[in-house]
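User: Continuing from earlier, I have the next pair ready.

Assistant: Great, send them over.

User: Here they are, in order.

Assistant: Folding the first of the pair now:
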Amino acid sequence: MKKANLFLNFLIIFSFFINGNLLSQTEEAPANGDGTEASPYEIANLNNLYWLSQHSEHWDKHYIQTEDINATDTENWDNAAGFSPIGEDPFIYNNDYAIAFTGVYNGDGKTISNLKIYRPETNNIGLFHYVLGEIKNLGLIDVNITGSGNVGALVVMNFSGTVSNSYSTGEINGNNYVGGLVGISSYGEISNSYSTVEINGNDYVGGLVGISSYGEISNSYSTGEINGNNYVGGLVGISSDGEISNSYRTGEINGNNDVGGLVGILYGEMSNSYSTGEINGNNSVGGLVGSSIGEMSNSYSTGKINGNNCVGGLVGAYNGEISNSYSTGEINGNNDVGGLVGAYNGEIINSFWNTETSGQNTGVGSGINEGAIGKTTAEMKLQFTYVDWDFTGTWKMEADNYPVLQWQAESNEAFIVTSDNNIKIYPNPAKDKLFIKGNTENTNVKIYNLQGQLVLEKVLNDKFIDISQLPTGLYTLKIQNKNNVFIEKLIKE
């Protein structure tokens, strides 16, 4: 009898567990909105988000997220496989037509936290799968995502779509085409976005995007540690026939072949960008780019670079054009090692490397060395060293410092309140001071830590907020004036 009762109790508990697990995936249609641009569906909770993932007939509609969403329960969904991406693969057909997300999802400055997806044998893993529409103003906090090929925290495949004002933090694991925010971006645009996730992958691994082709990436950055094998970039694994501008990378990068501070392999253009993190690789290792046949201008790197063959302060192996750029980091390698480029067969125009901090006496390890100019630290901190550089619209230089990009100098202390009732911190992470543009009279500023504790409060009658005393970490910043309340996530580094 006791055995029978024990077995019955087990069945009851097991049934309760299964039912509870299923109940955690409850669909709940949005209570407000009709999916039009004028009246978007309002996504207010995790059940609304799950409803969206299950109804492809609504993937061409407009959405707005009205509350922060805690997605911790997704760790129990689908036998611990977690969330199912929104938007199917374009090559999976239903009733003879392809399904993709072609609508607009406006996060409205809100966040989705603790999203869990664990599908290590499955390709195409992320919050949104195939996007031809628009994703904007959305933050993903503390994601834990594992997939096989084509993995991105926010979007798996951005095809002719746009991703803007969005970010991700947490951890991502995958095999090929792995990006901190987007796995693959083709003919798409990514702007004003960032990722701080730790990434572990194999080939085509990027801090922001795994592979980008025929598209644009601008005003974006990544900071999390990256571990990969081939074609590993701090921002993008491979950039093909596209453009990268006004973007940067900090944080450690570890790879094998074609490893770059910003891009593993560059076949397009890069301008007004920089990298500061340590880079470790084997073959074709560069402070900005592992190997390339593209064009690079008005960019620089300052991080330590360690490699074996074809190691350069800017590029490991290059067959293109470099202009008005520089490198200052320590460079260590064995074969074809140069202050600017490891192995080169192209054109270098008016570009510099630091002969003291780099430990390198030659600008190019092997190949054409013409145009690579070595300077001491003192010389590189004098503006007249940089002949024909644009210090009116591109570069800025202060006493006893290297040149910095003007957008970088201006935004180092910038906190911008935009006209569409959103705020954007750029760059983010911030360092010591935030600068608020616009009217700040009688504006109340509050900064909270992750536990919701108030750590800084100030009533502004000037433009500046000093955050130098705050420990490194993630915060919520709230600004309130007589007309609006603005909330944004702040990373202090």
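And the other member of the pair:
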Amino acid sequence: MEPLKLAVFDAEDLAVVSAHLQDAVIRVGDIAFLPAAHRFALVLRRFDWEASGKQPRRRLAGLHFEGVQAVRTRGIDRARPDDVLNLLAVTFEPGDPPAGRIRLVFAGGACLQLEVDWLEASLKDLGPVWAAKRRPIHDLESA
């Protein structure tokens, strides 16, 4: 399987990226806001949904957003860099076009909200691939 490399310029693009990132795990210490560059970046270990039917696996990937003016968090303690977050979805809420809010929603109620001047992001696999212990399971009955 070729490494994934996706660009985001609208909400539909972001929905595709969100699907690829469902169940990604992220160390709190691998999250960075670079205010001078108006960039928000993170390194994650995404579940490789494209490898369905094969041995479950994860891939190291990088995700960054441009035009970021502010970042808000809920349920994330930056003083605990080894804590692990399980990503459920990435969404976009339009504001005064082309600005808006990007939300990264995690299991357990944690959330990151990015205030952006426009929607622009990039997701890229960084190389390493390894066997996952198991395929993520979602309890749809309690959702």
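Worth noting for the second one:
The CA atoms of residues 24 and 46 lie 4 Å apart. Residues 5-127 form one domain.
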